[in-house]
Amino acid sequence: MTTIRLVQGDITRESVDAIVNAANSSLLGGGGVDGAIHRRGGPEILAECRKLRASHYGKGLRVGQAVATTAGKLDARWVIHTVGPRFTPEEDRSELLASCYRESLRVADELGARTVAFPAVSAGIYGWPMEDAARIAVETVRATETAVEEVRFVLFDEKAYDAFARHVS
């Protein structure tokens, strides 16, 4: 059974097998968690992302999918990039958000990762309400069959931490 832990802090400082990046579809870096991972991880991550774009992902990574690269200078073996959906009240995209967690765990299993750190995917600039993002994340991780032993949700601030804590307890 997978253990779920909550940490308030900077995901780029975590020591795990794999860090999940809330990437944009270009895989070439961006703001928020994505930018922080690329900055701290160094140019090796971007170089592998460019190779992915030149081969299998010429049009970018689709929403809800996941792919791994090296972790560069991060204290991890891999970065698993996943593209979360943008929130819109007009369309229920919950299944796409859940897919980000399922697909990231599938990739982690393929890699042999036993510890994985997730941010709150889509809850930043993509506008997903934190309470709902936390519910979907925790429910999906609990429902997904995986060999990952520990999922660590690394939340940037107290508001996010508290939202996740309400769904983990």
Automatic annotation (TrEMBL):
<dbReference type="Pfam" id="PF01661">
    <property type="entry name" value="Macro"/>
</dbReference>
<dbReference type="InterPro" id="IPR043472">
    <property type="entry name" value="Macro_dom-like"/>
</dbReference>
<dbReference type="InterPro" id="IPR002589">
    <property type="entry name" value="Macro_dom"/>
</dbReference>
<feature type="domain" description="Macro">
    <location>
        <begin position="1"/>
        <end position="169"/>
    </location>
</feature>
<protein>
    <submittedName>
        <fullName>O-acetyl-ADP-ribose deacetylase</fullName>
    </submittedName>
</protein>
